[in-house]
Amino acid sequence: MLWNNLSSEAIGTSNVLDDENANKGECKLGFDLSTPDLVICSGSPKIPNRPYEESPELLKHSSLELSFENGITEESKMEGHNNASISSKEDFGSSEASFELLPPAQCEENNEECDELMKAKRALEILKKENECKSKECEEALRSLRELQNELMRKSMHVGSLAFAVEGQVKEKSKWFASLRDMARKLKIMKMDQIKLLEEAEAYKKHAADMNDMGCIIQSKIDEQVEQHEDLKIRFNEGAKERKELYNKIQELKGNIRVFCRCRPLNSEEIAEGASMAFDFEGSKDGELRVKSSVAFKKNFKFDSVFSPEASQADVFEDTSTFATSVLDGYNACIFAYGQTGTGKTFTMEGTNENRGVNFRTLEELFRVIDERKNQIRYEISVSVLEVYNEQIRDLLLPSSQPGAAAKR
Question: What GO MF terms are annotated (predicted)?
Fold first, then answer.
C-alpha cells in the first residue's frame, strides 16, 4: 500500500473517476497527522460515474473524501465499505457543486482487498500511536526547548552582566597592573639607590673610623695648642706688662712734662713789609732754637723738640703719638698748645679737613691701638671738650658754658 500526504487540491477528480486510473482496486491513501481520521483516496473503491455524465466539468474539478467516522474495526473487514461515505466537492469550494455519494448497500471485494484494508488499519493504528508519541515528544521537546531558550536568555543576560563586570574588572586590573609596573619600576630605582646609599654608608663608616682616628690626633694637637696658647698667653701678658713698664719708663726718662716749640712761617703781610725770620733752626734737631740779632746771636733756647716752619702736621704728631699708648696703658696724659694769638695754636691742634691736627690724629691712634688689643682688653672711651681762655675753663659741650661749670662727659 502506498501512503502519500495529499490534499484535495493535489488530486483531480477526473483522475479518480477514470476507470483506467482506478489501479484495479489498489488504494492510495493520504492523511494528515493533524487529522488522522481524514483519508484521501484515489481509485478505490470504484465509484460508477454514469449518473454524473451530464456534468463532466464538475467531475473534472472534483475530489473524493473517504471518511471513517467510526474508525476501522474488525467487523469492517467483513462488511467492506458499508460504514464508509464518499463525498465530492469542487476545488473552488462552491456549495452548489458539492454532493455526497452514499455507500452501496453491499460491496463485494475479494479477500485480498480485505487483507490490505486490515493492514492499512493496523498501520494506521501504529501510525496514530507513533503520532501521539511523537506529538508528546514534540510537545515535550518544544517545552524543553522553550525552557532552554528561557534559561539560555537568562544565562545570556547573566553572562552579559558578568561580561560587563569582567570588563570593568579588567579595566580596573589594567590600571592596577600599570600602577604596579610603575611601582615596580620605582622600587627597582629605590633598590638601586639603596644599594648606592649602602655603599656610601660603608665608605662613610670607613671614613668615620678614619675621622675618629684623625679626630683623636687633632684633639691631641688641640690640647697641645691650648697648652701652648695658655703658655703664650701667660708669656704675652708678662711681656705686655714688661713692655708697658719699659715703655712708660722710657716716657718718664724722656720727661713726664715735655715742651715742644713750633714756629709758624711768615704770613703775607709780614712778607709784604719785608720782615725776616728772627730764629735760626740749625740746631732744631737737637732741640735748640737761636734768636737772631743784627750783631750776633744773643740767646739760645732748649726744648724737647723744635719744629721749623717747614715741619708738617704729621711731623708734629709723630713726637706726641706715644702719649696715646700711655693713655691706653692706664696713664694720664695731657696735650695742649700755649702761645700768643696768631701763633698757630688752633692750626696745630685741630688743623683742616685736608690736614688734620694733633687732636684728630691722637683719636685715630687711640682707636687703632684699641682695635689691635680687642682680643685681650676691652676699653671704654669718654670725651670732654674744654677751653681755657683768660685763665678760665669752659666746657664747649654745654649749651651755655659758664666759668667754673663742671665739665660734661
Answer: ATP binding; microtubule binding; microtubule motor activity
